[in-house]
Amino acid sequence: xxxxxxxxxxxxxxxxxxxxxxxxxxxxxxxxQAFGFQPLETPAMENLSTLTGxxxxxxxxxxxxxxxxxxxxxxxxxQKLEARNSKQLSFAIxxxxxxxxxxxxxxxxxxxxxxxxxxxxxxxxxxxxxxGDRPAKARYREFYQCDADVVGTNSLICEAEIILxxxxxxxxxxxxxxxxxxxxxxxxxxxxxxxxxxxxxxxLFVAIDKLDKIxxxxxxxxxxxxxxxxxxxxxxxxxxxxxxxxxxKLDALDTVFEKSESGKKGLSDxxxxxxxxxxxxxxxxxxxxxxxxxxxxxxxxxxxxxxKINNVGIGSVSGGGRxxxxxQAFGAKENISGVGFSFGxxxxxxxxxxxxxxxxxxxxxxxxxxxxxxxxxxxxGLSILTKLRxxxxxxxxxxxxxxxxxQLDFANKKGIPFTIVIGSDEIKSGxxxxxxxxRGEQEKLSLEQIIQKLK
Amino acid sequence: xxxxxxxxxxxxxxxxxxxxxxxxxxxxxxxxQAFGFQPLETPAMENLSTLTGxxxxxxxxxxxxxxxxxxxxxxxxxQKLEARNSKQLSFAIxxxxxxxxxxxxxxxxxxxxxxxxxxxxxxxxxxxxxxGDRPAKARYREFYQCDADVVGTNSLICEAEIILxxxxxxxxxxxxxxxxxxxxxxxxxxxxxxxxxxxxxxxLFVAIDKLDKIxxxxxxxxxxxxxxxxxxxxxxxxxxxxxxxxxxKLDALDTVFEKSESGKKGLSDxxxxxxxxxxxxxxxxxxxxxxxxxxxxxxxxxxxxxxKINNVGIGSVSGGGRxxxxxQAFGAKENISGVGFSFGxxxxxxxxxxxxxxxxxxxxxxxxxxxxxxxxxxxxGLSILTKLRxxxxxxxxxxxxxxxxxQLDFANKKGIPFTIVIGSDEIKSGxxxxxxxxRGEQEKLSLEQIIQKLK
Lengths: 455, 455
Description:
Chain A is α+β, with helices and mostly antiparallel strands and 455 residues long. Helix content of chain A is 43%, strand content 20%. The first copy, chain A, is built from 18 helices and 16 strands.
């Protein structure tokens, strides 16, 4: 029998990792709920007709497809089989695929339930997604997304609250050195207009989105290949190099966008978001207006966000923006607009590990292990357990009669912070030996005192 | 564009359903953790070599298989294609499948990590599983399992704690009319021996497991077809009809099992579990020794459990038992024994709906909606929001300037219990109108008073 293995790109999460992941997910969930977002879960499997064509050609190729149940070849055309065209055959033998993100299932849900939903609808969704990417460091085939979206309103209050939620989440996680980069699709369009590239928006946005990573020289090179003139490139970099505080930059762009409606809309939206933050009595710490922030996804139509944790070798850990046509792809007549963003749990996890930011007590374990010398003291220990648990103190007993050292080692390995050792003396006196496993200190206390201490 | 649909047998869980599901899952998780169980998550996808052959032939057919990525036909033998044998071809074009239960992935995890795990290992796992069953009422293709297992000890303390956990979970859920049926594989073997059917255990167990559903006549009929003599059937039903309390029944079986080691072991284990419950100062309410409880799975070797909620048309909602060879199928040299059980969340959900047992306030929503008459009062509302949230009171604002009636309707539909309506008077006086949406009562209070009241 071969040794079992995991499919490449997938992971088990054992107790220690799970405890840290739960810390992250609970922090995010608590913030989402405090802001009035409600939970949604959709199935892991979606019809391929729902998924296909939503993520571009590359995305389609990364979809995991599920083989139809039963005799899936029965009705397949013989010619199709002989042609040996995997792509064509796949649609004949597979109707379902695994969720690739949480946005498309959300859009499908909204279209299917639009008559029951009361808008504006604030939903959050925390579930794994699957992509057939080539596995690599920090690139997995199964990973969690945590999305929050508001649909059915154009209010910029939603954008302001996204910033507030990001701040609350990072505060809850104990991450203090990070930037919330913000830009606006209108500003990007304004730039395109002002350099005479309004018909070449896509290559322009794709290129400047990489400025961070590849630098000015390579961005210029890339755009030259797309027939951008030297003059337009110079104007472009004049704009991108606008320096100063967020309000300085916004003011500088007023002149640039004198003739661009999109640009003006972008500036006014961003100013409104910043002004709303003030009404919340919140400051704009961490918020950074980044003129070059484009984010690949072309469906954003308003504000766009991206969050980076500083001083770690990890890209953005959160991103999102406003879109105008969530449900268009599903043929909904009304266009439902909204704004949303997503936390990348795996990246946040990696960053927190790298920065050593996890609290020491994330481990999910009981607080007390009851240890014993023999059958009698084990029996006595069971009644102690009942009282500890009734007082809300998670606790367990070593289930076999065994050497005390082995029992204490077990507590240490499992990260259980306290032990109570029970022998015949303890049964007689009712005074129990409570040991603090980390400090190595031990004291004799009654059970009531122990409960008071640990509560 | 066609209307989007869900794959058959799968479901979306919208906010109202999610809130109730979270109530069930949180209750179970809290109890698991209080008893020292630690979380584990495994990937949705497992290698087919891990899954196949573990669930019997029928189970194998119900596995969802995932098409290999890329040009999956490239290396497929031409003859295999022409043979049009779906089953054979499936193994050539698919290496991975979706998790079918949580036990096999757990066994794989234990084998792969046995040198790092400190035994006894108590893990819980709450994740969806997928089965290609024909969808029907209360039978889904994607559903959650909640498993807890202890491996690496034979201590019957684990069995006693399973009973305690079941009781705590049901208490937490507010379910009081239910039975924890308990039996022992040794007792079943003892019965087989005492009626001379030790070589026919399987058909015997399969048949008596159905006694509940199909009655004595049909069980007799089924066993006659398997060549059980009339005499053995009469002995069988004499035993199965043993009446009285659990201890009466155990005592009655002492005589029947005088010559059966398995039977004696079964009786002694069950007595030990009941005696351990006493040491916990716990009673055996709800616990019911059911001689005919067999549970289909042949891998159980000790105590077996099954939980039924009374007065609902739903089968068992939880079950489990002790097994001796969790890791054998993966070629582990040491046999790792353990005991585990599983809660069926979907069935518990259906039962609680049927019995109307969900608390009224499960809905996940904010506690307050801030309503407003115009741009100014909306702005003022944002600072109110900040203070409410800082006090830990989940709250939100209606994000558009809109009619008050529409805003109040929105609070009602979303199940938000309180609203604060802000107008110019309120801004001037600082006295805010807090409305209890359910009672329809309204009072003028300062923000501090509101926070005190809602905290």
